[in-house]
Amino acid sequence: MKKSVYSLVLMDDVIRAVDEKACQLGTSRSNLINQILAQHLSCITPEMRIREIFDSMNELVSSTFRVQQQRSLMTMNTALEYKYRPTLSYRVELERVPAQFLGTLKVSIRTQSSALSMAFMKFFQYWSKFESQIMEKHGLPYACAAGNNSFSRRLLNCPGQDCETQGSAISRYIAILDGSIKLYLADGDAFRERLPGIAAKYEDLLDQTSI
Questions:
Q1: Smallest Cα–Cα separation from 61: which of 158, 177, 141, 142?
Q2: Of residues 181, 183, 170, 180, the one with CA closest to residue 200
Q3: Closest CA to 65 of 123, 107, 117, 115
Q4: Quick one: pLDDT band at residue 38, thresholds 50, 70, 90?
Q5: Eight-state DSSP code of residue 41
Q6: Stretch 34-52: mean pLDDT, rounded?
Q7: Domain span at residue 35?
Q8: Residue 60 scores a pLDDT above 60
Q9: Which residues pair with 107 in a beta bridge?
Q10: How far apart are CA 80 and CA 20, in angstroms?
Q11: What band does 3 get if pLDDT is binned at 50, 70 and 90?
């Protein structure tokens, strides 16, 4: 969303109140004034769009994950049914002004177990090939990267979709991914047996929206 510089004449008391509120919210004077005016005039700012997407996601995932939300970032944590119950974390970071991609999903695991770390990375080696084939089939771009106990992929932007639809799509994708990871780590053979059903859920999601 394009921004330009404008001069405004405001009362000193108004500016003091704006600065105090901006400090409380951890934002700038200009950004707060922009948000207040946008809300009053029913304009959608990047911050409002991100908040609406995250609010939609929160309604769908809060019963399954421990959710933390701040500005353009939402983190969802869950425990694995494994020794010492290690934490599996999903972090969604949205672009303020999305173009081809709406944002990035990063999945990471906290564990001291080298065996679990290896299994986690093997899963995503398999998963990246699995979903890249499906995305290619639908003519959609796919971008991912693997790191130390982490995996990230870009989330596609679908211009014209409302925030609720985008939030729902991200939540459904994370649900499919989370179930697949947990099944693979618990029983690799069972995961492979149920892969056709997982693929069907993935295909159904892509038939309704890109992600």
A1: 177
A2: 180
A3: 107
A4: low
A5: T
A6: 75
A7: 1-43
A8: yes
A9: 90, 151
A10: 43
A11: low
- DSSP strands (E only) in 46-200: 66-70, 73-79, 87-94, 101-110, 144-147, 150-156
What's the pLDDT band for 124 if we cut at 50, 70, 90?
Answer: very high
Using alpha carbons only, what angle is made at residue 106 by residues 129 and 133, rounded to the nearest 5 degrees? 15
Q: Residues 153, 142: contact at Cβ < 8 Å?
A: yes
* Residue 164 identity: E
Q: 89-115, pLDDT tens digit by residue? A: 999 999 988 889 999 999 999 888 899
Distance of alpha carbon 173 from its chain centroid, rounded? Answer: 10
In this structure, the answer to whether residues 23 and 62 fall within a common structural domain is no
- Cα distance between residue 22 and residue 20, in whole Å: 6
Q: pTM for this structure?
A: 0.81
178 in the same domain as 84 = yes
Count the alpha carbons within 13 Å of 1 in the hemisphere toward its beta carbon: 13
Kindly state whether residues 38 and 87 are assigned to the same domain: no
Residues 38, 62 within the same domain: no
Q: Which amino acid is at 179?
A: G
Same domain, 35 and 21: yes
Query: CATH number, domain at 125?
Result: 3.30.1460
Q: Element (H or E) spanning 112, and its range?
A: none
How is the beta sheet containing 66-70 ordered, strand by strand?
Answer: 66-70, 73-79, 87-94, 101-110, 150-156, 144-147
How many domains, the chain? Answer: 2
| Paired residues of 104 in beta bridges | 93, 154
